[in-house]
Amino acid sequence: MLIRLKPERQVRQISVLLLNQPGIIQRRNLKMSDKFLKSYMGSKGEFVRKDSAFRNWITADGSSGFKAERDRYHLYVSLACPWAHRTLIVRKLKGLEDVIPYTVVDWLMGEKGWNFTDKKPKCSADPLFGAQYIRELYFKANPEYEGRFTVPMVWDKKNNTIVTNESSEIIQMFNSEFNDFCATVEQKELDLYPEHLRARVDEVNEWIYHDINNGVYKSGFARSQEAYDKAVTQLFASLDRVEEILSKTRYLAGDQLTLADIRLFTTLVRFDPVYVGHFKCNKKRIMDYPNLWGYTRDVYQLPGVAETVDREHIEKHYQASHTSINPYAIVAIGPDLDFNLPHNRDKMTKA
Ligand SMILES: N[C@@H](CCC(=O)N[C@@H](CS)C(=O)NCC(=O)O)C(=O)O
């Protein structure tokens, strides 16, 4: 009986069982997911995120060689991905919809990484090259490329190359370098990384990135009890810390929304539907934290943000793609969540 086998034998058995069923695709996914995870593993079974490889900057004056221009850059995203989601929110808040077009990849990540499809809602074929996989674009930019094929990624149609694949930098560029092109004056004047709040924004970003944004991945992809315990303990200690901050101020850096909030929001909005179950981040749910839950709804309800959130892409991507942690790729039903419930956090803003 399966239950009596040693762990490594059980894994083989699962693979055979899946092969005997009509959905042969499961075996392919199992292999992919394992390879994917191993490429991110440290020596103690801990998840180690790789640095992004393309780090050019688009500037308003073009001094970097990449001048901010209308319809010069193309943004590639997954609606499932929290890092890519940041870029869609800032693009929206800054009114850059007509300036920076984007393409959404398939929510299912297979053995060759992200692929394009026009057969699923909100996804489309690659408009620039008709590529099948995002990796093809990375090789177009650099045939010797050896890094990961990640989203978000910004393609420069003029120089025919990748500008950047680092979300934290893309959102800074969208915030400040495209101000000549924003749809409205309010959007041009909106500064999500103002000089006087930078030190505070940088400070919170630092620990929120390690403990929360990446903390959920470190918990979910841990391959040893020790690595999981460490990551998940740190994750919830930092969520408690954020809860405390948000009991005093509406946003992380005070009364004003900043890039730090966008960066945190994209993790929080995925937390209860995916990270609690799929990544075993189940000490508490976001809805158990009054301030974090109210804050998540507050950011969600900002004009334009809700339309960047796609629960179908989010829930299906993680659970169907990571078959080494969810071998049958069954997508859980997910909690009832109403992000539109009143949050009353506007009352915290000082007059
Ligand atoms: N540091 C990058 C991380 C981006 C990232 O890891 N994206 C994931 C999707 S959530 C990805 O594309 N993974 C594909 C892979 O690692 O092969 C950023 O913030 O932009």
Considering the chains and any ligands shown, give keywords for the structure.
4 strands; disordered N terminus; Glutaredoxin; globular; 4-stranded mixed beta sheet; mainly alpha; 12 helices
Could you explain how this protein is built, in words?
This protein has 351 residues and is mainly α. It has 2 domains: 73-189, Glutaredoxin, CATH 3.40.30; 195-348, Glutathione S-transferase Yfyf (Class Pi), Chain A, domain 2 (Up-down Bundle). It is built from 12 helices and 4 strands, in the order ααβαβαββαααααααα. It has helices at residues 7-19, 25-38, 82-93, 134-141, 167-176, 185-189, 198-213, 215-220, 225-246, 259-278, 290-300, 311-321; strands at 73-77, 102-104, 153-156, 161-164. Strand 1 (73-77), helix 3 (82-93) and strand 2 (102-104) form a beta-alpha-beta unit. The protein binds glutathione.
Short account of what is shown:
Pfam families: GST_C_2, GST_N_2. This protein is mostly helical and 351 residues long.
Produce the secondary structure layout:
Layout: H1 7-19, H2 25-38, E1 73-77, H3 82-93, E2 102-104, H4 134-141, E3 153-156, E4 161-164, H5 167-176, H6 185-189, H7 198-213, H8 215-220, H9 225-246, H10 259-278, H11 290-300, H12 311-321
Parallel strand pairs: 1-2
Antiparallel strand pairs: 1-3, 3-4
